[in-house]
Amino acid sequence: MTRPMLRLPVLPRRAHPDTPDGGSGPLSDPSHRSIHRPRPLRARSQRLLATRSVRDTIVSLAGVIGRPVRDQGGAEIGRLVDVVCRWDDGETYPPVTGLVVRVGRSTSFVDGSAIDTIGHTEVRLRTARVDLRGFEPRPGEVTLAKQVLDYQLVDVDGVKVIRASDLYLAPVAGGYRLVGVDVSAQSLLRRLGPARWRPLATPDRVIDWAAIQPFGETAQGAAPEVRLRTTNARLERLRPGELADLLEDLMRPERQELLDSLSPEEAADALEEMDPEELASLLREADPAQAAELVANMEPDEAVDALRDLNRDERDHVLGAMPLAKAAPLIRLLTYPEDEAGGFMTTAFVVAAVTETVAELTVRLANHDECPEELDAVALVDGDGVFVWDLPLLQLIVTPGDTVLEELVGEAEPVTVDSHARVDEVAERLVDARRLSVVVVEDDRPVGRILADDVLDALTPERGRFHFPRLLQ
């Protein structure tokens, strides 16, 4: 059955150390060249130039499948069905551990120690006497043609989901190893074209395997499911927006495995960066308990945006699976129209009494749960809970600890908007006040805060999410 093709996404570029974890490797991908990514490309070039001899000996997996397997004397013993690799031991370049060979009407296994050469048009064994056994996959082994070719992988250097159009093997350190993956359309055409084209490798379009994070835990006899190894430092470096791009481009089983590998907080950060439609689809795919955990860890305003894209029954299932303390603020926010201030404010903000001292408030802010990353000011209230002043965080930092907060209240009218204010009113208020956020009030009491980037999101929903630098990050 023909597997569907994957659209290669255009994703954000990122900079990272010149030498990715896993050491130097033999191949590169010049087709990814861009002035926006000089450091990753320099790392790939170093891998390529250091081992050009390996590049010159690579063999196309797609080209050699179906070719003769010959013994030491040149007699054909069968046809190559698949190549077996082991990749669960942390090695950057998985070693070839055997061959699957069709002999007559049966399928047999040839141990990797019997391999002499894997050529473009045939495989040669180093012995005339071959111990042919029935093929039984062992834990940790993968059949490349059946389980990897045409499946999804993550290119860590390029931060994108790719599909393996072809795989490349090369002799390294006394044995054959998987050294690269071809993601080009030309490679697919080569495979579909005349048989004489298939052995021709296209190394200029190969990504070094050191830049690839394969998904999957290879249970015995099972195809590798998409499962991220969280110990891989290269993937742990990805920012939430980059993880969001991967989640959007992976298929349902694969992105579920990626989610499972992330902590709830990491997953929530990535979900906040996703396209709303993709996020809604992801939440529908998850069971209510998992969806509830993901939403509960999102910022309240982002969580409400996600819930609004679900139908009533789906939303009720998610909220019903959440602790009441987490669900109650979201239920309240959902009562506001999404184009009013209450509909896109966040309830994750800090309120302090004017009778507190700077030191007392600082101790409270040290508790991460009460101190959101977006914090730029603290809402001060009097004894009746009435909002009296929005204290900039910078002023709090430079003020002596024994200062009572009431002494920091200014004479000007504090900047606020009503919870029913329209988006354009909120934007105008922010511009006039030259502030990064504005407090939302009801009956003169603070109920939430709106950040400048949330206003931009509401004004230009077709542009995706804006995120300004956070003072505490």
Q: Give the fraction of residues assigned to helices.
A: 25-40%
- Per CATH, the architecture of the largest domain is Roll
Which segments are poorly predicted (pLDDT under 50) over 5 or more consecutive residues?
Answer: 1-50, 223-232, 462-473
The CATH fourth-level homologous superfamily of the largest domain: PRC-barrel domain
The fraction of residues assigned to DSSP E strands is 15-25%
**At the third CATH level, what is the topology name of the largest domain?**
SH3 type barrels
Q: Please report the distance between the alpha carbons of the first and last residues.
A: 49 Å
DSSP strand tally = 21
Largest sheet descriptor: 8 strands, mixed
Radius of gyration: 29 Å
* Structural class assignment: alpha+beta
Rounded average pLDDT: 76
- How many domains? 3
- Quickly count the helices: 19
Give the CATH class of the largest domain. Mainly Beta
**What is the overall shape?**
elongated
Description of the molecule:
- The protein has 473 residues and is of the alpha+beta class.
- The chain is built from 19 helices and 21 strands.
- The protein has helices at residues 38-50, 52-55, 61-64, 144-147, 185-192, 233-236, 240-249, 252-261, 264-271, 276-285, 288-296, 300-308, 312-320, 324-334, 341-344, 358-365, 393-397, 423-433, 452-459, and strands at residues 59-60, 68-70, 76-86, 96-103, 106-111, 115-118, 123-125, 133-134, 141-143, 152-155, 160-163, 166-172, 175-182, 206-208, 212-213, 351-353, 377-381, 387-392, 416-418, 437-442, 445-451.
- α7 packs antiparallel against α8 (252-261), α9 (264-271) crosses α11 and α11 (288-296) packs across α13.
- The longest helix has 13 residues, at 38-50.
- It is elongated, with a radius of gyration of 29 Å.
- The chain starts with 37 loop residues before the first helix and ends in a 14-residue tail after the last helix.
